[in-house]
Task: structure prediction
Amino acid sequence: MDSRRVPRTVSDPKVRQVGFFAPPDRSQSGPPAPASSSPPVSGASPSGNTLSPVMIPPPRHLSADLSRHFPQAPPLSSLGVARAVDSSVPVGSYNPSDFLSPAATADYSEDPLSPRWGRKGSSGKFATSLPASRFEMAVAKQSIFNLPPSRLSFILSVLILFILFRDVSFRGVLSLFWVWRNCETDGGSTMDMSKEQSSVSGKPLKEKTTKAERRAIQEAQRAAKAAAKGEGSKPSAAAAGVNPANANTGKPVKAVSQKKDNSSVAPSEKKKRVEKAKKRSVVKQTEARNRVELFRHLPQYEHGTQLPELESKFFQLDPVHPAVYKVGLRYLAGDISGGNARCIAMLQAFQEAIKDYSTPSEKSLIRDLTTKINGYAKANLISGIDLFISEKIILADKVIVKHAVTKIRDGDVLLTYGSSSAVELILLHAHELGKQFRVVIVDSRPKLEGQKLLRRLVGKGINCTYTHINAVSYIMHEVTKVFLGASSVLSNGTVYSRVGTACVAMVAHQFHVPVLVCCEAYKFHERVQLDSICSNELGDPDVISKVSGRKEINSLDGWANSENLQLLNLIYDATPSDYVSMIITDYGMMQSNFWKQLLRYQSVDLEN
Amino acid sequence: MWYRSASFILDKQQQGNDTVTNPESCPQSPASSAMAAENPNPNMSLYYQTRAAHHGVVTSDWLAQAQAAVGELPVSENYVTGGEDESKGFSVVDEFNNWRRQPELAEAVAAIRALASVIRSSQATTMMELEIELKKASDSLKSWDTTSISLTAGCDLFMRYVTRTSALEYEDFNSAKSRLLERAEKFGEISYKARRIIAMLSQDFIFDGCTILVHGFSRVVLEVLRTAAQSKKLFRVLCTEGRPDRTGLRLSNELAKLDVPVKLLIDSAVAYSMDEVDMVLVGADGVVESGGIINMMGTYQIALIAKSMNKPVYVAAESYKFARLYPLDQKDMVPALRPIDFGVPIPSKVEVETSARDYTPPQYLTLLFTDLGVLTPSVVSDELIHLYL
Result:
């Protein structure tokens, strides 16, 4: 294990392939693990032969999880599996196993029964380590249901313990949903599912991933050491219990367990994919070569060709609930866009998965208790998810609209950028109230999200003007107010939103036009980000070089072959709080950099 | 811009052809959601009318409009919509108006005294009933004069005290009631003391030989200057005329009584005299969440000039004037209009900008002297939280 861990830590952290392919320079760490493992059975752990000497290579990685319950070192094996996977194959936009399982294990092994839900730090980590890329989500989601029956019962047992002893399970679930949402940040786009041209969707913030990744490594090492000493049963069982519990109790939990499961589940999948990817590795490597230096730390966009392959796997997903996988695929394909839409889709997939979950047939003392309370736990979770959606998204939007329409006066010219679901609701409601105003919709390539908003507003009878972002300084002198949506509002008041938002806010500030950001409170996050570079998401560079419907604009064809040319397609940017006059949330209207104090006084703890 | 874009003009022409009034064509008209229901006269802000009365400057215009307003008022409007007050013939609004007329009494204190009288005359037997009555009274007061920020703030503060204090958990209803009354009385004292505290805090900022520019007639500012004069500081005051209320005249009267050298300026002469000024001192009708202030018309102008010439602008305001408002621009508040007397008749086609107050954003203010201490504008939000939450 240690020997295998070393290559991973040495490997180039900047080169993280989004797609499945083993870069040739990582052959020392990558191929050996997948290649040497047994032929991948669906769900089988590829790193079977890369386990520590303490571990017994399970025939399937599921059984590895299974064995976790017993006081041998199965949890560590899963850890080892996770790490093996990590070192071997980067999967998804960033190594899911890296930060998934280790982070999960790490956080939970420390204190399995502690009020996990209340820990800001850990939840932050979970949030970060949640799979950002859509594919990531898919893989991660697979892992939840990859659990062996015994582990699931452990999940339930721990869950039940929380329910019984803490009586804040509901709150905890909610808090977990909070954290999950914080990960699942994406521009406040429309709630409509719209097929986008580019298949890039929002990812959880990368920084968290990195942090969680490192922590995961540390924890994995620590756990491995503990296992090596032969006392692995307790912590590993705890870790196992924690992870499964996490998976079922809530999103961050799920994230954690997902990661963990992912690490155990994914290896088998990954091995298959690695092999496939290797056949296509020529293509992928070419894509990877044109990286923009400044953004090398971000996962590069590789998964343009992933979709067919992933779709083909749909029917091989024993461990993963199909609903979860489906949501992941939809993210990847760009079917769902917008923070609220994706969050709701994800939560509903989880609900389905919970509904279909049934207690494992294996018996043990702990599980007897579990089976009796199983139904209760499931119903609790499902209703918790429903409440979360209705309270934190739908009701929050109503409150935001109520606050925001007081700021719209007759004769106003309102500018909005892109397509934000909250802003759309505000405009429609103000129109219903009979206010006379005009709307200027600023749009930008390559997504051109504003066109859909334009169509909907015009359909409702609102006078609209449409322009692209290159004309924003031209039109700004006419504008009285700017309404923007946000993927997230960070701790220091920085607004993290679709790329181009910062530009619009800056121009508005220069023209002394007030900028109002409308954002549900669940999108707030503790992070501080000073620029748009340290954490971002890269989209498909090809959509920049092509214009849909205009085949004659092809000067950039074959750009990947040019050594000197790199195309950069950023998805998000950070708007400093100075440019934002006010944030409108379901907690009221407040200054951008002040939301933390205000919410603190209102006894809102985001991580709780 | 009058018409925000060419398309508005086209719209207007089109609608003008249809002979339908276009609401978009008059961006300067008051917002459609403006005046509250109960205040019958949209052309006059009661708050500013009262202040003008305090200043002793009542023009014939005022009188005419006031009488017209009073004449229009149906008696029922004075009554709280609740049943109890009507039956007793008690009107919280009347009570408030009585208190308000006293020149030395702060607006919020008048409001709280009115609410205290509601408690006294209430026949409720339980705490909940009393709370409901108070809430009704407070709402009717607030809707009576929507332009007065101190009134709203005072009502809110008192209601907050009523609904949150643990005194209400006493079993004995009467003792709880008397406790509330005590608190209301104390508030009056607090308010008076607030002025003293602010005066003490601001003494450090007035140094010998300084020139202070004052705008509007704020009782707090007068207290500050009075205290400074009584501690034998040497300073002089430049007073803006303060049209149309002529607050400058009144203030210069008061200062002359204190033997403080005072010079009157017309409002347009502020920039001319700004370089000989060391600091600007104003009061506030309200302090908003962003840290800006709402004050008499002209304050924003003076603050802009002072900022561009690097002169500090100090605001003296009691803490109960902090309001949970967040205006984005000058027009984002409830309009408070008052009639302006030009001394000569004006043709009817000519519009007059009659707003009585403006909003000064926080970046033009240096410090706020409050009874909570000397604050920077950015801290106001924090203090607001303490007060209101």
About this structure: The first helix of chain A runs from residue 2 to 10.
